[in-house]
C-alpha cells in the first residue's frame, strides 16, 4: 500500500499583522517533524503543499531533513478553508439568531478561543443546506476541489510511494471526513481538534484510500520532553 502523510502546518502568527507566517514555535514544530521523519526512516518520494506561506514554509523545513532532495509541488486546492471570507459574508447571517455568539464577537475576537467559537458556528452554517451565498466559494466546490487534488496526487505518484501533503486543519478535516464517507455536517468534528504539525496517515491503492491514523502529535510530546520544550499547540 502507498502512503500519504497529511501534515498540518506549524503554528501561525495569530494576532499579528501577518497571520500567514510561522511563529517561532511553528518553525520549531516543523523542524521536529523533519527530524521525526528522518529518524524513523520515512523517506518521501514526493511532497505537495497549498499556496499559503505557512504551508510551504512548514514543508521546506521538513524536507530539509530528508536524505535527498524532494520536489515540492504547490496546489492551491490544498489551501485552508477561506475563514476570512466566511467571516465577512456568513457571520452577519449567523449572528442574527445567536445572541450568545453576538456577545463573543462584541468582545473583539482577540483570543484564539473566541475566534474558534465563531469559526465553529460559521463553518457549520457554510456546510449546511441553508447556506446559499453566491459571493463565496461553496462547500461543494471547496470539498470537491480537495477530493480531486488528493485523487490527482494518488494517480500522479502511483503505487508503492510515500508522499506528504502539507496543508491546514480544515483541509485535513475535509479529507478525513470524505475518506470515512461522511458529509459536510461531520467535517468540523475533525477540524477543531487538529494540532499544529500533527500527522494523519492515509493508505491508498489505485483510487481506494483508507485512514490509518488521525492527528498524531505524540512524537512532538516525546521530542519536546527530550528538549525541555512544549511543542504542542492547537492555534
Q: Tags for this entry?
A:
six-stranded mixed β-sheet, about 45% helix, 2 domains, globular, about 240 residues, single chain, alpha/beta, Rossmann fold
Short description:
By secondary structure, the protein is an alpha/beta fold. Helices cover 46% and strands 15% of the residues. Strands 3-2-4-1-5-6 form a 6-stranded mixed sheet, with helices on both faces.
Describe the fold and architecture:
The chain has two domains: 2-79 and 150-227, Rossmann fold; 83-126, no CATH class. Helix content is 46%, strand content 15%. The protein has helices at residues 24-39, 53-63, 83-89, 91-95, 99-106, 112-126, 139-157, 169-179, 187-191, 218-227; strands spanning 2-8, 46-49, 72-74, 162-167, 199-205, 208-216. Strands 3-2-4-1-5-6 form a six-stranded mixed sheet, sandwiched between helices. The chain starts with a strand and ends in an 8-residue tail after the last helix. The model has no long low-confidence stretch (mean pLDDT 94).
CATH fold type of the largest domain: Rossmann fold
Label the structural class: alpha/beta
% residues in beta strands: 15-25%
**Molecular shape:** globular
Query: C-alpha Rg, in Å?
Result: 18 Å
What distance separates the N and C termini? 33 Å
Residue-averaged pLDDT, rounded?
94
The helix-strand sequence is: EHEHEHHHHHEHHEEH
Main beta sheet, described? 6 strands, mixed
Query: Residue share in helices?
Result: 40-55%
Proper CATH architecture of the largest domain: 3-Layer(aba) Sandwich
Q: What's the CATH first level of the largest domain? A: Alpha Beta
Unreliable sequence segments: none
Please, what is the CATH homologous superfamily of the largest domain?
Phosphoglycerate mutase-like
Strand order of the largest sheet: 3-2-4-1-5-6
Structural domain count:
2
Put simply, the count of helices is 10
Number of strands: 6
Amino acid at each position: 500500500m502507498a502512503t500519504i502523510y497529511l501534515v498540518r502546518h506549524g503554528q501561525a502568527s495569530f494576532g499579528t499583522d501577518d497571520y500567514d507566517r510561522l511563529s517561532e514555535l511553528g518553525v520549531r514544530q516543523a523542524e521536529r517533524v523533519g527530524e521525526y521523519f528522518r529518524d524513523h526512516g520515512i523517506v518521501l518520494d514526493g511532497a505537495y503543499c497549498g499556496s499559503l506561506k505557512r504551508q510551504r514554509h512548514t514543508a521546506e523545513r521538513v524536507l530539509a531533513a530528508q536524505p535527498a532532495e524532494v520536489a515540492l509541488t504547490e496546489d492551491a486546492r490544498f489551501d485552508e478553508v477561506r475563514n476570512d471570507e466566511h467571516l465577512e459574508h456568513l457571520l452577519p447571517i449567523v449572528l442574527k439568531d445567536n445572541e450568545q455568539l453576538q456577545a463573543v464577537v462584541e468582545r473583539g475576537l482577540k483570543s484564539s478561543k473566541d475566534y474558534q467559537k465563531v469559526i465553529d458556528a460559521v463553518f457549520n452554517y457554510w456546510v449546511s443546506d441553508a447556506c446559499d451565498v453566491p459571493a463565496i466559494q461553496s462547500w461543494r466546490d471547496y470539498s470537491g476541489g480537495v477530493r480531486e487534488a488528493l485523487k490527482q496526487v494518488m494517480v500522479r505518484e502511483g503505487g508503492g510511494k510515500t508522499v506528504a501533503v502539507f496543508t491546514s486543519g480544515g483541509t485535513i478535516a475535509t479529507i478525513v471526513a470524505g475518506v470515512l464517507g461522511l458529509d459536510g455536517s461531520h467535517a468540523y468534528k475533525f477540524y477543531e481538534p487538529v494540532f499544529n504539525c500533527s500527522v494523519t496517515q492515509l493508505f491508498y491503492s489505485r483510487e481506494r484510500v483508507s485512514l490509518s491514523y488521525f492527528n498524531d502529535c505524540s512524537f512532538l510530546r516525546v521530542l519536546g520532553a527530550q528538549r525541555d520544550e512544549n511543542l504542542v499547540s492547537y492555534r
